[in-house]
Amino acid sequence: MEAALVLPIFLFAMILILYLGLLTKCQDEVQWAMTRIAREASAEYGASGSRVFGSRAYYQTKLNAYLEVKGLAVSLLESRLLQENDEIDLIAVYQVKLPFHLLPAGTCRFRQRVHTRAFTGVEQRTEKEEQEEAVVYVTETGRVYHRKRDCTYLKLSISQMKYADISNLRNEGGGKYKPCERCVRGTELPAGREVWITNFGDRYHVTRSCSGIKRSIKEITLSKAGKRTPCSKCGGG
Length: 237
Prior knowledge:
This protein is α/β, with parallel strands linked by helices. The chain has three helices and eleven strands; from the N terminus they run H-H-E-E-E-H-E-E-E-E-E-E-E-E. The protein has helices spanning 2-48, 56-66, 127-132, and strands at 80-81, 87-97, 107-117, 135-139, 144-145, 158-162, 178-179, 194-198, 203-204, 217-221, 229-230. The strands form five sheets. Strands 1-2-3 form a three-stranded antiparallel β-sheet, covered by helices on one side. The protein has a two-stranded antiparallel ribbon with strand order 4-10. A two-stranded parallel ribbon has the order 5-11. A hairpin with a 5-residue loop joins strand 1 and strand 2. The longest helix has 47 residues, at 2-48. The mean pLDDT is 81.
């Protein structure tokens, strides 16, 4: 008696699960076919530019050929093709008949969508635009921009010297060292006082942490370099 009651319910549940699996497979196949069509149309439109890709008949014919589900009528009438920004908006609508009358109509309606943009070619930049987008390197107080981050003008070599020897020293450019406006400020220094100098700088400092020694390097585009001039060492590239 119990088996007679439970067995029909069990069989019904198994058949329902099996049918739900078939519905899922059907949806996957429709989605795969639409995705394939959209990709092919996008590439072909970019190559030929033909207006045939704005016709629903083109997509409907391909969809019917790609679908492996027999007897499934899929409509693309709601699709929008090449209307805004060369977009391909495929909308598939179809109905599947249910094996049991779970719904009054006896069918289940599905609506799936694939949205992409047709390939229209590669945008060509002008030489001026490419130059403006070039990346350069600047410092907070620097008046030049550098093409290379490893430019020796950006990499400071700091040395400690005696103040008495400053008058005899020259930087890499052959220039003399002058007192730093930030940390020296015209103060008279004893001959034995230790000061700091850099290889490409033209100032001597009484403190290692002076902001005139520290250098913060920023990466910007050439169009934002403003009135800065190219570095004499790396800016001409």
